[in-house]
């Protein structure tokens, strides 16, 4: 990293201690009088301290004196070492916008040219007014009137056609950008490591899709209109000087005022719109979480509590939305006021010039029409500030996820079935979120073609082993081998294609029974599905469903019972014809008859020389395993066959006594 980590302890705590330190820094604080906590100090002023609290991931502004009361004086600094070289690896937001625009530049150029022509044709109205006043009405020239009227109608038709084609090009490019941004974001999500999903709420992830829409709106619509508006301002300003330079100079005095209003709006919107997005994401997360847990909410009578949590977030969003609306009112009102006041001043002063014979009435009216082409785009620039800030903030939020490192795919090999062997853990260390040590220098051999069961209390590390075998998580130290191949060098999809798993938490997808068994197979093999379902003894319950195998299971299998979902999950694992089958509490929701079908299926796979790994709390399911591994706190206490471990009367024996203290052991499958 080329950084040195320095710990400091300050005995006298005051503002100077903080203000002299290089920031950002990590400060140790005591909150609520007794809870040890750490926050990231971002900025220190004479009155306030800005910190980021990892408890909620938000930035807070605290009064300096209050922060010093919480601060223990302990602080962690990160200082660049002698080998550090400063560079900015981030891609600027505007460069990202250009990269998004680049593939569609031809369509956007066509739309841009159309927008310019459309706008220029609009200026014909001011010339029409001037000619009408100075030549037609005064001279009562009917021939010129008819000619001008016909030309204006034709120009209007051309303007409408160009406008339609311009909008058509914008719709086309907008859909292409949506495809690139939103589907690109989702594709990127699927390749992110599991740790990301463990720390990011679903609502936060989904809210980034709304961010992508804001980016597309800015790139496709606002940016094009902004360019046209800027050109319109310059062109109309030039026309003002063409008609009468004195009035044009008066009009130029309004530009600093418009610019000042824009800067004020920029400051207000930047702060408010970020808060709106963050609070909206928080509300969306709360809604998703509560609706996904609606059964638990009802079971515990938590409707009032869930409603209160949602209401608090919604009220906060409304308050911030109110501030955002006030900013919009300020933008519209200030733009309207400046436009009207300068229009009045120009007509006022222009009338003096007409009376003084410096300009004609037609020229004044034409100048008045041009003012609209100047002030309208300037007012739109003011009002577009919110959309610009929305796009910039949305880009920050979206690209902070897109910039996250994916699961690594380069320099990987595909695993071949004939090269499979024992699964070997060699000096493996693993921690969750770099804090909870689960495995430390762990060693284990899972023999190929055998049934290996892992037992132990909750939290002993059983499920962790499964996740590491599938590379759901990455080990911090050591190696895992399948045969002679190091897991680090095996391509992820190749590895996961040979592993079938029945997890503790079973996820079924909205669709039919067939679609959930033949997961990801666009041409399901019905003969294989029937064979598996018959072997597992679930053919009868499926055929009793309203539409048999075509019955839709609802969201996450809501129309099925827990046992039925578990049996569908087992069928799904067997459909893959896996070389390695992992059963994580796979029979916990089954009755003894259904369990016997599963045990028979396992016996058949063992005969086919498949590797079977069983994670179990119910010890009755592991009696006939070739090897039983007993875990406690990430350590192997014992391993061997059931009879040997039971006769040793150590930890495995104690687990049995805790589950079946008064029952005899049946050495057959139970």
Structure description:
- The longest helix is centred in the middle third of the chain and has 53 residues, at about 305-355.
- Strand 2 and strand 3 form a beta hairpin.
- The model is unreliable at about 660-670 (pLDDT under 50).
- Helices cover about 55% and strands about 15% of the residues.
- The chain contains 23 helices and 16 strands.
- The protein has about 675 residues and is an alpha+beta fold.
- The protein has a six-stranded antiparallel sheet. A six-stranded mixed sheet has the order 12-13-14-9-15-16, with helices on both faces. A four-stranded antiparallel sheet has the order 8-7-10-11, with helices on one face.
- It has three domains: about 5-80, Cysteine proteinases (Cathepsin B, Chain A); about 95-400, Up-down Bundle (ABC transporter transmembrane region fold); about 425-660, P-loop containing nucleotide triphosphate hydrolases (Rossmann fold, 3-Layer(aba) Sandwich), CATH 3.40.50.300.
- It is found in: Cell membrane.
- Keywords: ATP-binding, Hydrolase, Membrane, Nucleotide-binding, Transmembrane, Transmembrane helix.
- Pfam families: ABC_membrane, ABC_tran, Peptidase_C39.
- It is a multi-pass membrane protein.
- One of its GO terms (molecular function) is ATP hydrolysis activity.
């Amino acid at each position: 990293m080329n950084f040195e980590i320095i710990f400091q302890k300050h005995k006298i705590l005051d503002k100077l201690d903080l203000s002299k330190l290089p920031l950002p820094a990590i400060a140790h604080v005591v909150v609520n009088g007794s809870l040890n906590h750490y926050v990231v100090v971002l900025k220190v002023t004479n009155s306030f301290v800005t910190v980021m609290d990892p408890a909620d991931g938000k930035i807070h502004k605290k009064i300096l004196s209050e922060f010093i009361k919480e601060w223990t004086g302990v602080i962690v600094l990160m200082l660049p070492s002698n080998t550090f070289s400063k560079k900015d690896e981030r891609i600027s937001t505007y460069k990202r916008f250009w990269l998004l625009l680049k593939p569609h530049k031809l369509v956007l150029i066509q739309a841009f040219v159309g927008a310019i022509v459309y706008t220029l044709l609009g200026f014909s109205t001011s010339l029409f007014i001037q000619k009408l006043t100075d030549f037609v009405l005064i001279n009562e020239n009917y021939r010129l009137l008819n000619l001008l009227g016909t030309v204006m109608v034709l120009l209007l038709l051309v303007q409408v056609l160009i406008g339609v084609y311009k909008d058509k090009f914008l719709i086309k490019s907008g859909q292409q950008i949506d495809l690139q941004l939103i589907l690109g974001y989702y594709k990127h999500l699927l390749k992110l490591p599991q740790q990301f999903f463990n720390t990011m709420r679903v609502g936060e992830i989904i809210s980034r899709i709304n961010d992508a829409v804001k980016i597309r709106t800015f790139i496709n619509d606002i940016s094009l209109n902004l360019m046209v508006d800027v050109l319109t301002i310059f062109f109309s300003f030039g026309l003002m000087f063409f008609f009468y330079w004195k009035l044009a100079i008066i009009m130029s005095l309004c530009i600093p005022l418009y610019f000042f209003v824009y800067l004020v709006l920029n400051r207000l919107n930047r702060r408010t719109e970020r808060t709106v997005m963050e609070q909206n994401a928080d509300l969306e997360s709360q809604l998703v979480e509560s609706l996904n847990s609606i059964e638990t909410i009802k079971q515990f009578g938590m409707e009032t509590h869930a409603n209160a949590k949602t209401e608090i977030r919604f009220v906060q969003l409304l308050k911030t939305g109110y501030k955002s609306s006030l900013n919009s009112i300020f933008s519209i009102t200030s733009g309207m006021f400046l436009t009207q006041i300068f229009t009045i001043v120009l007509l006022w002063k222009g009338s003096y010039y007409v009376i003084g014979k410096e300009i004609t009435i037609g020229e004044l009216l034409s100048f008045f029409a041009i003012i609209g082409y100047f002030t309208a785009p300037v007012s739109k620039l003011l009002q577009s500030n919110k959309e610009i800030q929305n796009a910039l903030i949305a880009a920050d939020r979206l690209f902070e996820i897109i910039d996250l490192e994916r699961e690594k795919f380069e320099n990987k090999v595909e695993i071949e079935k004939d090269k499979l062997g024992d699964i070997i853990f060699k000096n493996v260390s693993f921690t969750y979120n770099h804090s909870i040590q689960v495995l430390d220098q762990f060693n284990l051999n899972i023999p190929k073609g055998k049934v290996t069961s892992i037992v132990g209390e909750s939290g002993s590390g059983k499920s962790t082993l499964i996740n590491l075998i599938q590379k759901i998580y990455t080990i911090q130290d050591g190696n895992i081998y399948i045969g002679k191949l190091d897991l680090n060098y095996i391509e992820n999809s190749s590895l996961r294609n040979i592993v079938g798993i029945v997890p503790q938490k079973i996820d079924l997808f909205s669709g039919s029974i067939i679609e959930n068994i033949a997961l990801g197979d666009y041409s399901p093999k019905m003969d294989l599905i029937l064979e598996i379902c018959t072997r597992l003894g679930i053919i009868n319950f499926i055929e009793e469903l309203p539409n048999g195998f075509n019955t839709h299971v609802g969201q996450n299998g809501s129309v099925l019972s827990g046992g039925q979902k578990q049996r569908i999950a087992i069928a799904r694992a067997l459909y893959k014809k896996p070389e390695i089958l992992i059963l994580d509490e796979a029979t916990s929701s089954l009755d003894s008859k259904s369990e016997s079908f599963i045990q028979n299926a396992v016996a058949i796979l063992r005969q086919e020389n498949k590797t079977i790994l069983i994670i179990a709390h119910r010890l009755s399911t592991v009696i006939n395993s070739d090897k039983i591994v007993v875990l406690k706190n990430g350590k192997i206490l014992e391993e061997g066959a059931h009879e040997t471990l039971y006769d040793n009367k150590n930890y495995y024996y104690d687990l049995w006594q805790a589950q079946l203290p008064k029952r005899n052991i049946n050495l057959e499958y139970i």
